[in-house]
Each structure stands twice: as structure tokens, then as C-alpha cells.
Specification:
Blueprint lengths: L1 H19 L5 E8 L5 E6 L2 E7 L5 E6 L4 E7 L2 E7 L4 E7 L3 H4 L1 E4 L2 H15 L4 H6 L2 H24 L4 H29 L9 H11 L9 H14 L3 H9 L4 H14 L7 H11 L3 H16 L10 E4 L4 E3 L7 E7 L4 H17 L3 E7 L4 H10 L5 E4 L7 H5 L7 E5 L5 E3 L8 H11 L8
Parallel strand pairs: 1-7, 11-12, 12-13
Antiparallel strand pairs: 1-4, 2-3, 2-5, 5-6, 7-8, 9-10, 9-13, 11-14, 14-15
Length: about 450
């Protein structure tokens, strides 16, 4: 009896120890050669969850208390996706000067993370976003299909190496979802980046997208994509009520509230049925504050339709003087919303200067910064010797003039006529080949300023 009692107590003790010793963190260590920063960041859903300080030699070791899932490791402007499971002892070695080419994971979890590194490297081989989206439909489809097939091949190799089955299954779905996502948003980006402003997707492309979307389930993994999918369609498509009818079939009330909040944030002049949007959000959402804000925004958006007198602004210029939109009447006004940290904005600057040099007698060229740091904006304007009318708006989304035009993504261009009426709340970019002809024709009165 005593022996049975002894072994019973021993088993209970060992079991208790095993439970106490259950590791709820990832032991993450490694070395960064030729470091360009003293810090690595671990991000999840665009939020920093861990800051890791490197030694003088670039070594690091830290514990990451995370749930199982995919995260991002950032250093300066470089990033790499990683897959973390509590209990892993994962190591990373990389040269910061050749970040993408030198990523090597070792230890537990190395197979899945080296797969992600190779997949990321293949993505970097694609043309940059603007160049890719300029491509004709068939060429674009071939490039994106090849990238998808390469990802599947890498995943097949991971399967042969006995990689984590759950991870592999999730990756298959993610590769498919990302492929369909790129195809779905292609028409919008193609029209924006190319000269083919009237492009419409072919029946073939629409069929691929529709069949692909039908296989994407509503899950936590997919909800961000599906939310963006619905918000985009509501923003740009004419069959607004039909889209809301689809949303009503989704059972998750949290998901519907999330859609409502995003619609409030992103809705702008491109939406053809503002009243239908408001009616449906009013019925779908229980957030009274959101509905009140959306109503105000819809009223503002209607005020910036073509042909309406534009809302006024009063902003401070780089010298500290106040400038209003009304004070510029008598000239056409070409407005550029931008920021010092926005690379596409900076790329447009040389074209903006050329337009200003050519049309300055008839057109006021106004650059409105949405930088948070006013001092940094002033320093940048001075350093780059930026000409034209340089104004500071600040980063507040709800600033009246900015919110009236629904300015979220930048650069964002607006064109106003000599009487202060809106010609285009979404004007052509300075680099667009049609911009010079448009301004020439407006000045020569070959085109009506608005219909």
C-alpha cells in the first residue's frame, strides 16, 4: 500500500512539474551583421508588441510572449514575416546591409520561417507597385500567377520537409486569398497608374475573381481582406444596395460594425450612391456616434461634387502667414495633399514643379502637408527649396477641408476653377500625360470647368 501511495504521489508531482514548466513564450535570439539600427521590432497587426535591443556587436536574445501565429520583424525599413509558437527556440542571422538576401533562421521553427523568407524574396522580385499595375491585364495576370505558383512550389518543398501541417494548410489559403486580392484591386490601381483611364476588366478576369472569392470563407484570418473587399465595392461600385444585401447575410455583428466604421473612414466622392450608403449604415450599426459622424461626412462629400463651390480653407504657410482658398480666386487652383514621409508624393514633386513653371500665370499650385511634425515639414520645405504655395494642415483626419474631400491616401490632387467651383475632387497626378493637356484646354476654354 505504501509503495502504491509513493508512486501515486510521484506521478502527481511529475505531472504538476510538467504543467508548471509549460513554456508560454518564444526564446528568440540571433545576430545582425552590419546593423543599421540598434533595435528590432516585432509587430502584429501593425502594432509593436516587442522592442528588442541589439548589443554593440549586433547580438540579441529575448523572450516573446505571443500566441501562435504570424508576425513581422522590422529593422529600419526592412521587414520579414515570421511564424511563432510558444515553446520555440528560434534563431535569426541576417546582414542588415543585404537584409533580404541573407535571412537565415535556425533552431525550432526554422523550416516554416525559412519558407516565409524565400517567399518574401520571391515577392521582391516583382516589379514595384506602380510599374506592376501599369501592365496590361494579360501580362499582369501572368506575373501574378507565376508568383502564386512559385509560392505553392516553395510550400510543396516545406511539406516534403515535414513542416507544420497547420501552418501549411493556412498558407495554402493565404496564397489563394492574396492572389485573388491582387486581381480584385488591379482594375482600380491600373486606371490610377496607367493612361488607360477607361479600362474595365475582361470577362475572363471577372470570372477568376468571382470563383476565387466564392472559396474564401469568413474567418479571423480572412476578415480583414473581406472587410476591405466590401468597403472597396461600396466605395466604387454602383450596385450599392446589392452589396449591402450581401453583408446582411454575414452573422457576425462585430464584423458589420467594423465595415461601418471603415466605410465612415474611407467614403468619398467616388461613391455614386451616398444616400443609399447612409440608409444602410444607419440600419446596420448600433453606434450612434458613428452614424452621426457619417451623416455629417455625407453632407460634406455632397458639397464637393463637381460644379459646387468648394469649401474654404485657411492654412498657415511656411512663413507663418495665413492663406485662404478664397484669396486664390481668379486662378485655377491645383491642390496637392502630401507629406514629407510619403515616397509617392516626393516622386510627384519634379512633375509638380514643371507644371508650375509652365502654368503659374493661370494656375495657383498649392501643396498642403498632412505631416504631424510641423517643424520637420518647415525644415523639409526649406532644405528642398520647394516653391509654390506651401501650406500646413496637420494630420487630423477630421480637419474640415481635408475630411470634406475624403483625403486619406496621399498624394491626393484636387482641381478648382477660377470661381472657386470644384472641377475634380480626384484630379490627375502631375506625372500623368493627360494633365498638361487638361490644363491647356481649361485655360484656353476648350473644356467646360464642370458639367
Amino acid at each position: 500500500m505504501n509503495k502504491l501511495f509513493f508512486w501515486g504521489i510521484t506521478i502527481l508531482f511529475l505531472t504538476a512539474c510538467k504543467k508548471e514548466n509549460k513554456v508560454d513564450y518564444v526564446l528568440f535570439s540571433g545576430h545582425v551583421e552590419d546593423k543599421t539600427s540598434d533595435t528590432l521590432y516585432i509587430n502584429k497587426d501593425r502594432e509593436i508588441i516587442k522592442k528588442i535591443v541589439l548589443s554593440e556587436k549586433g547580438d540579441f536574445v529575448d523572450t516573446l510572449r505571443v500566441e501562435k501565429g504570424q508576425y513581422f520583424i522590422y529593422m529600419d525599413r526592412d521587414e520579414i514575416e515570421c511564424y511563432l509558437i510558444p515553446g520555440l527556440e528560434l534563431k535569426l542571422n541576417v546582414n542588415a546591409e543585404k537584409f533580404d538576401e541573407t535571412i537565415v533562421f535556425s533552431g525550432e521553427g526554422r523550416k516554416e520561417n525559412n519558407y516565409l523568407a524565400k517567399k518574401y524574396a520571391d515577392r521582391l522580385s516583382l516589379p514595384n507597385g506602380d510599374e506592376l499595375n501599369k501592365k496590361k491585364e494579360n501580362e499582369y495576370l501572368n506575373v501574378i500567377s507565376t508568383h502564386r505558383d512559385n509560392s505553392y512550389k516553395l510550400l510543396k518543398l516545406l511539406e516534403k520537409e515535414n513542416g507544420n501541417p497547420e501552418f501549411i494548410n493556412q498558407e495554402k489559403k493565404r496564397i489563394h486569398r492574396d492572389f485573388i486580392s491582387k486581381l480584385f484591386f488591379y482594375p482600380y490601381y491600373h486606371r490610377y497608374n496607367s493612361e488607360d483611364k477607361d479600362y474595365m476588366p475582361s470577362k475572363k478576369l471577372n470570372t477568376i475573381i468571382k470563383n476565387g472569392l466564392d472559396t474564401i470563407e469568413y474567418t479571423d484570418e480572412n476578415k480583414t481582406f473581406l472587410r476591405n473587399y466590401y468597403v472597396y465595392r461600396i466605395q466604387y461600385f454602383k450596385n450599392t444596395q446589392q452589396i449591402f444585401d450581401e453583408i446582411k447575410k454575414i452573422k457576425s455583428s462585430d464584423f458589420k460594425e467594423n465595415i461601418a466604421s471603415k466605410i465612415h473612414l474611407f467614403i468619398n466622392q467616388t461613391q455614386p450612391n451616398i444616400d443609399v450608403v447612409y440608409k444602410n449604415i444607419k440600419a446596420m450599426s448600433i453606434d450612434e456616434s458613428l452614424k452621426s459622424k457619417l451623416l455629417k461626412k455625407c453632407i460634406k462629400i455632397k458639397s464637393t461634387k463637381k460644379g459646387n463651390i468648394s469649401p474654404d480653407f485657411v492654412f498657415e504657410n511656411s512663413k507663418g502667414d495665413s492663406i485662404s482658398l478664397k484669396s486664390l480666386r481668379g486662378k485655377f487652383v491645383y491642390i496637392d495633399f502630401w507629406a514629407t514621409w510619403c515616397h509617392p508624393c516626393i516622386e510627384e514633386q519634379p512633375f509638380f514643379k514643371k507644371l508650375e513653371k509652365k502654368f503659374h500665370k493661370d494656375v495657383a499650385f498649392v501643396s498642403i502637408s498632412i505631416d504631424r511634425d510641423k517643424k520637420a515639414w518647415k525644415a523639409f520645405v526649406k532644405e528642398k527649396k520647394m516653391e509654390g504655395i506651401q501650406l500646413y494642415c496637420g494630420s487630423d483626419f477630421d480637419q474640415p477641408f481635408r475630411s470634406a474631400y475624403g483625403v486619406l491616401g496621399i498624394p491626393h490632387f484636387i482641381l478648382i476653377d477660377r470661381q472657386g467651383k470644384v472641377i475634380s475632387p480626384y484630379a490627375l497626378k502631375p506625372s500623368d500625360n493627360g494633365t498638361i493637356k487638361l490644363l491647356d484646354d481649361l485655360i484656353a476654354k476648350k473644356l467646360p470647368t464642370h458639367k
